[in-house]
Amino acid sequence: MVPKANSHAFWVSVHAGAAAAGQQFDVDVLWNGPALETDYDRQMQIVDSMLAQHPDGLAVAAAERHALNRSLERAAELGIPVTVFDSAVDSTQYMTFVATDNYKAGQMSGRELARLVGGRGPVAMLMNAPGSASTVDRERGFEDVLRAEFPDIRVVARQFSMSDRAKGRAAAENILTAHPDLAGIFASSELSSAGASLALKSRSLAGKVRLVAFDATDDLIADLKAGAIDALVVQDPFQMGFQAVKTLVDKLRGGAPPKQIDLPARVIRKTDLDLPEVHQLLYPDLRKYVGGAS
Length: 294
Prior knowledge:
Blueprint: H1 9-25, H2 40-52, E1 58-60, H3 69-77, E2 82-85, E3 96-100, H4 102-116, E4 121-127, H5 133-149, E5 153-160, H6 165-178, E6 184-187, H7 190-202, E7 210-214, H8 218-226, E8 231-234, H9 237-252, E9 260-263, E10 266-268, H10 276-282
Helix pairs in contact: 1-9, 4-5, 6-7
């Protein structure tokens, strides 16, 4: 199993879900990914190294939608079933795609930010990185829904965080300087969200410039409680990891997994945090499955 990166909270939760499936179905799950989501070459090296070990199945979250095409062709040549998870690829050489419906999640984000800014005014997008299919789909869904349903909202700035908290903060600072009348920001990934929140807090704009963030970490949840973030659009990374492994197990045991499994996202506001189902979504028991997780 090869994620986009190892270090982010999102991928730790995916890893825990994969490990939980490994325990339940009695299979060995070998996990390895690059340190950074933008290290495309390193991810290709890891995938090719995995294939050289001739595993019974491969699950991969492509950091860039074109970069792994040759590796997926090689897996097909070797007869190794492949599940793509989290982020789409342009290749057709895979069995199943397991992911959040990211376009719909982007639409949800747009409608939530529109509600927060009263349906009018200038807003900005703090995007993730070019070529990352999952976040590109979110960003496209966000812009499409604003264009179709909220003509009085204008997207006046778009910058990338390059999946880096510090770069995300710097990009958000640039946007806030250039647009002092900004009404809201949509951040399309975990580290974009962290960077945007840091920028708003540093300028005492928390709660004034509305922020819809994506994914959930302890820090982002704390910012939601404190009012620096107005809403989190949250995936279920634990279930994503679990289902990715389960599809490969089903195939290896004679089943026919579906071509696509869409996992829903959810908008979470501060008032939702005490709901039992929200607590379970935000705080899966990672330590039970991944040693040293926090």
